[in-house]
Amino acid sequence: MNKKDLDILIRLGEGFTVEFKRSGTSNIGRELCAFANATGGTLLIGVTDDGKICGVDDHNRLKSVIQSIARTIEPPLLVDIESVGDVLAVTIPPQSGKPYSHSGRFYLREGASSQQLSRDEIREFFFREGMIHFDEMSCDRFSLGTDLTESVYIPFARKAKIPDDMDVVQALENLHLIRNGLMTYAGAWLLAADIQKFTVSGFVSCALFMGTSRVNILDRKNFTSSLQDIFQGVITWLLSKLNTEFIITSTGRDERPELPADALREALVNALVHRDYRSSANVQVHLYGNRVEIISPGGLPAGMKEEDIGLKSIPRNPLLFSMFYRMDLVEQIGSGIKRMQQLCRDYGVQEPVLRIEDNWVTIIFNRGNLQSGRESGVTPPVTPPVERVLFSCENPIDREEMQKRLGNKNKKYYLESYLQPALKSGFLEMTIPDKPNSPLQRYRLTELGRQWLQNKKMENES
């Protein structure tokens, strides 16, 4: 850090990542711990609360004391300490060893201050950081004597490849579904006659709408049994509502749904095993005239970024995920998104689109073989990434300028998640389509795209 960097930090003032301290080392451990449990930050010693540099003496002694305090944090914390003029700057980089505690207490940066976490807040923090998995916790409501019935266990055991002569409790203990004499939540969901008895939001709701909006509902059904039965019931309902093509063969006729069944199964499995079961919301399957949406509550799991999708897997419910894998409901760990995309390509339909929000993940399948909105006559759904592209292309624009406006630094991710979906939607087109890599290439709205943008602006103004 140089003098210019210091001046910028001071001018910005105290906040989530910056703290001023006039002098001394009191409460230093608390501040270091709070920054470590958040996203990191900088502590400036020798600066008053109102941003005036007062400086501190004996920097070497202070550095030694702060390093000693950092080592007492559990687990020990590595910090960078440097002198910038009369100010001592202590930088806490983003940490991967969360949670951190100081003197047996947990602190977290909230706004411009560091707060001690209560018991419930610590618990929530552990869940949010992926250190506690809800599916592995004991489900006190599940009674091994009355809720573990043959009618549910026998088909489950068959799917889970449990030998017929193995003791039921011993088998479930070996699969870690029973721990310390109590059924885990993963076990309760898989062995439930009615999943809502143990998790109220564990069911899946399906709805068939007329047209492309939620105004008119044609059919609605909730699925509430065990997770594997819910899975099968939802898939059966969904396939029964989709259009089916009958293909005459030499041996009779084959039925071909308008969307690949295996891709829909993969999407539904992802929604069931990766959702946040602590949420009061449930998994929803919506079927519109032009698309299918499978909506899962919880956003992305801790440690997962949007650009990681399709490259790595971080299960939010690892025990439940492992059981779905054992039951052959998951094809291969970490392959879900890529498998869906490949299945759709092989089937001759458009690849599914992912919409990622803070508390939701939605997988969208366009119905039919939609090479573009213009060719099909159906307006495809506009995802947030595509929407941002369209708003940036009111006038023809080159790729670099568009990427800069959208704030995307990763070119590959930008192309795959923003530009290419916008082109496939039929809302955007190249100015020189026969030379995609031309240095003069620009991107502009199609007539369909201009109409969409005009309607969107009118909608925002109303």
What would you note in describing this structure?
The protein is α+β, with helices and mostly antiparallel strands and 462 residues long. It has four domains: 3-128, Schlafen, AAA domain (Methyltransferase, Cobalt-precorrin-4 Transmethylase, Domain 2, 2-Layer Sandwich); 134-194, no CATH class; 204-366, Heat Shock Protein 90 (2-Layer Sandwich), CATH 3.30.565.60; 382-461, Arc Repressor Mutant, subunit A. The protein contains 16 helices and 19 strands. The chain has helices at 3-12, 28-37, 59-72, 119-128, 150-159, 168-174, 185-190, 227-241, 261-274, 318-326, 336-347, 373-376, 384-392, 399-406, 411-425, 447-461; strands at 18-21, 41-45, 80-84, 87-92, 101-102, 105-110, 113-116, 178-179, 182-183, 204-210, 216-223, 244-249, 252-257, 283-287, 291-297, 353-356, 360-366, 428-430, 443-445. The strands form six sheets. A six-stranded mixed β-sheet has the order 11-10-14-15-17-16, covered by helices on one side. It has a four-stranded mixed β-sheet with strand order 1-2-4-3, sandwiched between helices. A hairpin with a 2-residue loop joins strand 5 and strand 6. It is flat, with a radius of gyration of 27 Å. The two termini are 49 Å apart.
